[in-house]
Design a protein that fits this description.
disordered N terminus, TonB_box_CS, five-stranded antiparallel beta sheet, 31 strands, Ig-like_fold, single chain, DUF6049, disordered C terminus, alpha/beta, elongated, six-stranded mixed beta sheet
């Protein structure tokens, strides 16, 4: 304004120059503020940085050709406090963008009115509004023949939708809002087409637990019913299949997802409840799962299918935190081995298991080593990790031989990240599609050399992101500068000799990804759970009932999907370990109270209980005396016996013992597996040895003493009686008037001092009789002790 007030050829006064400079500074302040707060690269979206925001809800066709009519629709919203008058929405074609970085720059400033714009197409192709009230949104639709856009050579053009008008404070026509996007222009077939491989990922979070029902069907238990929501019509996974079936893509599938859906389709499944119980899953979800599987089988028929290791293990976490834990790499090998079997069983196709896919394609030497340790010789990396250092003027092909027979398949970072962020709003999705197509065409125009480019999007696209991906792919595959190619073909393609093959060092791994890794403690817990599983499985008659669900659950514990979900990950791992503990405790020793041992030898029973539904064996029960000098088990300090128990039963195992002295002895009972590993908790109990008890000794001693005294008294009394008789009869009268000769007593006579209670050897048992070696068995409760069998 100050410059316009000056006349050409005259000198401005100092005061006027000062005013002009001040005005220039004030006018430039918003631009400076905008430059200092540039938005991060990504799908550009309209915001309130201008007076009016412009949302571009649709642009069709996305890549027009000769004879097409371009139709643009969207909304304009007055974000200011003053009404906008004499407003109109117009279309402007900006300059041709000759590099991929120029496209990035336009995307970063997509809604800044201060940036330069092209010339409007013309009054005929605009939509007018007499007035835009504050806070009010108005819809618009404009159609223009492509030949009216004055597009020149083939390439990418900036394409702007602007809202121009006046306000009471600024009463002249000006651009008050803008939305910049891109118009790919390749009306005829390109001389050289880029071969594009687009990965279509079917991956979800962990849904199945390690728990299964006790019956023959082993009813699976799910964490929740979220999977059914994803499979239902309109759900994320349902849309991925419905959209992908019409696209030339490489399906990248986590076999765990297929196994989970297949388990739901079987009909009988249960849902975990907060109180530790479970409830039956809705029967109608069985039909949903069956329908989804049937649709997927049709969608992948004739297409390339890549199977990730079961559960999609986090390769970076394993490389950085898990390799120091024994057995961690074996889980990756197991997950890889079961992947092909699962996919072939469920989808009836043979997948490729040659590919490993680290998170976001970020690699370092340790990740490459772990990724290929299970047999995969192709690692899907990304160009923002494996960056070019050779100064190539174009984007090289994806395949890079990195040594040791391993190929890094480097996905293009710009194309792979084009559909990230919130695309639920139509304006954001449209901008993402146009930017993707612009980058693809710009890449193709870099050189006449044909190249193979790979697009590896985010692992779990939302429904809106998947819809944007599908829209862009349909335009690309129906366009004139790209042709579809499978991932395996891209990996086998001839690499560019100038492309970098140097794997970045570990220090270059992004810190944002490192913060989300599974820590070493996770792999320690996995190893502990595996040890418990190994110890438990050896006693089972049917190991598959436990090994399979727990093995797959351990694979899920290493899943990439736990990133950003630490609390849920901890809960899942704790649940798996708690369940193996609970199953292990179903085979146990029954506690014993104090046992009384009367006599020199007896047998001690120890009971093993099996609450599992299947028989157990390969167990050894060891009974150990802590004082073998007093009590021996089987003639030594301890004895062992093999144990086999039917499902749902108990088995009593008897041990022969011998006592050498009275007293109390602690005995330990412990189950062992056949390889000598302790199984379950030991049971200890006391054995009270009473070979000859004090009470019995007292009774026997008292009885003997009474017998001796009675016999002595009888002897003396008889002797005295005989002497008196002799004195009364005198000499020579012995035997006169008596009974049988020589009998000192007549028949039936007895001494008056004799008692009827005198013990008799053949009479009934009396209190003074000797006690038996051990107490008789009693049917009554034993109270504080147990009696043992003799």
């Amino acid at each position: 304004m100050a410059e316009a007030a000056d006349f050409q050829g005259t000198s401005a006064s100092p005061a006027r120059r000062w005013l002009r400079r001040a005005g220039t500074l004030l006018a430039g302040a918003p631009l400076l503020a905008g430059l200092l707060q540039l938005p991060a690269a990504g799908p550009a979206q309209a915001d309130s940085s201008g007076t009016v925001s412009v949302s571009l809800d649709s642009l069709s066709p996305s890549a027009p050709t000769d004879g097409d009519t371009v139709t643009v629709s969207g909304t304009v919203t007055n974000n200011g406090k003053q009404a906008v008058t004499d407003a109109h929405v117009g279309l402007r074609v900006g300059p041709q963008l000759t590099s991929r970085s120029e496209i990035d720059s336009v995307a970063r400033h997509s809604d800044e009115p201060q940036s330069g714009t092209g010339t409007e197409v013309g009054d005929k192709y605009e939509e007018k509004f007499d007035k835009l009230a504050p806070g009010v949104a108005e819809h618009f639709t404009i159609s223009v023949p492509v030949d009216k856009l004055d597009l020149g050579d083939d390439g990418v053009y900036e394409f702007d939708v602007t809202l121009s008008g006046q306000t009471s404070a600024q009463a002249w026509d000006q651009v008050l809002g803008i939305q910049r996007t891109f118009l790919p222009w390749q009306p005829s077939e390109a001389d050289t087409k880029t071969k594009t491989s687009f990965l279509w990922p079917l991956i979800s979070t962990a849904h199945l637990t390690a728990k299964t029902g006790a019956g023959e069907l082993q009813t699976p238990e799910f964490l929740d019913d979220d999977l059914a929501k994803e499979l239902a019509p309109g759900g994320r996974l349902a849309q991925m299949v419905d959209l992908g079936k019409d696209l030339d893509v490489t399906w990248v599938i986590d076999p765990d997802l297929l196994a989970s859906v297949d388990a739901m389709a079987a009909g009988n499944y249960r849902l975990q409840a907060a109180d530790g119980t479970s409830t039956p899953g809705p029967r109608e979800h069985q039909a949903v799962a069956k329908q989804w599987l049937a649709a997927l089988q049709k969608a992948v028929a004739g297409k390339e299918v890549v199977a990730l290791p079961f559960g999609d293990p986090d390769l970076a976490s394993l490389a950085h935190n898990g390799t120091s834990v024994t057995g961690s790499l074996s889980h990756l090998k197991d997950a890889t081995d079961v992947a092909a079997i699962t996919v072939k069983t469920v989808l009836h196709v043979t997948p490729s298991t040659d590919f490993a896919w680290p998170v976001d394609g970020a690699v370092d030497p340790s990740i490459m080593k772990v990724a290929t340790s299970a047999g995969a010789d192709r690692v899907i990396a990304r160009s923002d990790s494996l960056q070019e250092t050779g100064g190539l003027p174009y984007t090289p092909s994806a395949a890079r031989p990195v040594g040791g027979g391993t190929t890094a398949v480097v996905a293009d970072a710009r194309l792979s990240t084009a559909f990230e962020g919130d695309l639920t709003k139509a304006g954001a999705a449209t901008l993402a599609v146009q930017r993707f197509l612009a980058q693809s065409l710009s890449l193709n125009a870099q050189t006449d050399k044909q190249r193979s480019i790979v697009v590896a999007p985010q692992r779990m696209p939302t429904a809106s992101q998947a819809q944007a991906m599908a829209t862009a792919l349909k335009a690309l595959q129906g366009g004139t500068w790209s042709q579809s190619q499978d991932l395996s073909a891209a990996a086998k393609d001839k690499p560019d000799p100038g492309a970098t093959t140097r794997i970045p060092p570990r220090s270059a791994y992004p810190s944002s990804l490192r913060r989300q890794e599974l820590p070493k403690a996770v792999f320690d817990q996995i190893a502990r759970t595996q040890d418990k599983l190994d110890n438990f499985r050896v006693i089972l008659s049917d190991q598959s009932r436990v090994v399979t669900p727990f093995g797959r659950a351990i694979n899920r514990e290493m899943s990439t999907s736990w990133r950003g979900r630490r609390g849920e990950a901890v809960g899942y791992r704790d649940g798996v370990e708690a369940w193996i503990d609970d199953l292990t405790e179903q085979v146990k020793l029954i506690d014993k109270s104090e046992t009384k041992l009367s006599g020199r030898s007896a047998t001690i029973p120890v009971t093993v209980q099996n609450n599992l539904v299947q028989p157990v064996g390969h167990l050894v029960l060891r009974l150990t005396s802590t004082m073998p000098t007093r009590l021996k088990i089987g003639g030594k300090a301890y004895d062992e016996q093999p144990v086999e128990v039917s499902g749902g039963h108990s088995q009593s195992v008897k041990f022969t013992t011998s006592a050498n002295a009275n007293g109390r002895v602690t005995v330990l009972a412990q189950l062992y597996t056949e390889d000598g590993q302790p199984y379950g908790d030991a049971v200890s109990f006391d054995v009270k040895v009473t070979e000859v008890t004090p009470t019995v000794m007292l009774v026997i001693g008292g009885g003997v003493l009474l017998l001796v005294l009675a016999g002595f008294r009888m002897y003396t009394q008889r002797k005295r009686a005989a002497a008196r008789q002799a004195d009364e009869d005198g000499p020579g009268t012995a035997g006169e008037d008596t009974g049988e000769p020589g009998n000192p007593e007549a028949p039936g006579d007895r001494l008056p001092e004799e008692s009827d209670s005198t013990p008799r050897a053949d009479g009934p048992e009396q209190p003074s009789d000797p006690a038996p070696d051990t107490a008789p068995e009693s049917a009554d409760p034993s109270g504080t002790g147990e009696r043992v069998d003799r």
